[in-house]
Amino acid sequence: MRNDSAEPNGIDDMRNIAVLGYGVVGGGITTVIEENCAKIRETVGDDVCVKYILDLREFPDSPYADRVVHTIDPILADDSVELVCETMGGAHPAFEYSVSCMKAGKSVVTSNKEVVATFGVELLECAKENGVQYLFEASVGGGIPVIRGINTALAADQISSVNGILNGTTNYILTKMRTESRTFDDVLAEAQVLGYAERDPSADIDGIDAKRKIMILTALASGKLVRDTDVYTETLRNVTVEDIHAAEAWGGAVKLIAGSVIDGDAIQVHVCPMFVPWSCSLAHITDVYNGISITSPVCGDVMFYGRGAGRLPTAGAVVADVCAILSDAAKMERNPVFVKADDGCVKPFDEIGFRCYIRANAGQVELCEALAAYCDGTEVLSDKAGVVEVITGKLTKPELDKIRVQFAGIESVIRVLD
Ligand code: HSE
User: Fold this and answer.
1) Which residues lie across from 257 on neighbouring strands?
2) Contacts from 7-14 at CB under 8 Å and sequence distance 24+?
3) How far apart are the C-alpha atoms of 24 and 29, rounded to whole Å?
4) Given the CA of residue 203, which atom of ligand 1 is nearest to it?
5) Is there a contact between 256 and 206 (Cβ–Cβ < 8 Å)?
6) What is d(CA 349, CA 397) in angstroms, rounded to the nearest whole number?
7) How far apart (Å, rounded) are the C-alpha atoms in residues 254 and 315?
8) What does the pLDDT profile of the chain (418 residues) look like in tens digits?
């Protein structure tokens, strides 16, 4: 008999799953399954039951209090559990638990970008060896179906570039700095109070979170997972309100862009603050929203947009993967597949030139003459009270480093997204 109240106890005509980690996303999974039980039943063909929740804590006030276990063993030993949702965060023990579950014949779905960016190749191999599935839609872009989009809708095309705003916290900070002319530190403190930013915000503001996400998208787009040390990553901490106003005067916005360029076998991946022109959709993505622009020869530019974080959007993406596996739909569609990138195929960031915004306490003539030694086409934006602002021609990082040595008065350098 079906159970419309979604209060299952893991009986025979239900599809039993387990949740590893009952935090923000793990808690959202039980909410989504409860609230959407009729739709999920229609998709899967049976009710889905959360039979176990693995967490170090107890949840005495939760309706799921009796499902809480403190070790992985009962989940591994229970053959009626066919799928596990890993929402623990961190690489360990999420990796070891996921491997154990797959070796025990259980498919795994995850929202954990760190484990996918670090061990995605091993986890996909493990799934293949054990005849189960490993899906991770929620690991990038929260509720935005970008991974399934790349794997299925764009499957016939060679993706040539990915550019994304992949971190909601930093996009919120940049939006507030622009609209309220507030400093980075001031808005960061507010974001921490509102719960958008962690007490230790470095994963967000130093680009680490966005780096993991662009590594995953690039792996799906190119078939190769680069090492995190191969991704040039620049912090947002040095962006000032002056930079943001300069971008507006130029005709755009400052955004933390996670980007990759795929040129045959060569891949280049970076995360850095950039001037994004208003003509690019990414410039208009504000607050905690995420956006991903994917370019390919056949489809041109395809844009994904939505809530890149948050309890229910992320949990919704996890449960969508659960439905895809339990309904067998995932077996029919193209699943994620990638291998480790060879050293030779990663193009060093130092070789890539970008136009740059430069603000310096320098004479216009002196700065422009120095820049002319490295690039053509420098455009002067303003020259007031001893401060000159320019948009340069294309410069590589080593060239920028030399220019910084030449001009002690350089206040700001931000690359331009062309
Ligand atoms: N801290 C992340 C963000 C959460 O701000 O986007 C989602 O990965």
Assistant:
1) 272
2) 7/63, 8/47, 8/49, 8/50, 8/51, 9/49, 9/51, 10/49, 10/51, 10/80, 11/49, 12/80, 13/46, 13/47, 14/46, 14/47, 14/48, 14/49
3) 9
4) 1
5) no
6) 8
7) 30
8) 334 444 445 556 799 999 999 999 999 999 999 999 999 999 999 999 999 999 999 999 999 999 999 999 999 999 999 999 999 999 999 999 999 999 999 999 999 999 999 999 999 999 999 999 999 999 999 999 999 999 999 998 999 999 999 999 999 999 999 999 999 999 999 999 988 888 899 999 999 999 999 999 999 999 999 999 999 999 999 999 999 999 999 999 999 999 999 999 999 999 999 999 999 999 999 999 999 999 999 999 999 999 998 999 999 999 999 999 999 999 988 888 899 999 889 999 999 999 999 999 999 999 999 999 999 999 999 999 999 999 999 999 999 999 999 888 999 999 999 9
- Within a 10 A sphere around the Cβ of 77, how many other Cβ atoms? 9
310 CA to centre of ligand 1 in angstroms: 8
Burial class (CB in 10 A: 0-12, 13-18, 19+), 306: middle
Ligand 1: residues within 6 Å at CB? Answer: 142, 167-169, 204, 209, 308-309
- The token duo for 268 is 């280049």
Other beta carbons less than 10 A from residue 158's beta carbon: 12
What is the position in ligand 1's atom list of the atom closest to the CA of 290? 6
Among 24, 198, 209, 213, which residue has the most ligand 1 atoms within 8 Å of its CB, making it the best to mutate?
209
Give Cα 236 to chain centroid, integer Å.
16
Catalytic machinery residues: 213
Among protein residues, the one whose CA lies closest to atom 2 of ligand 1: 167
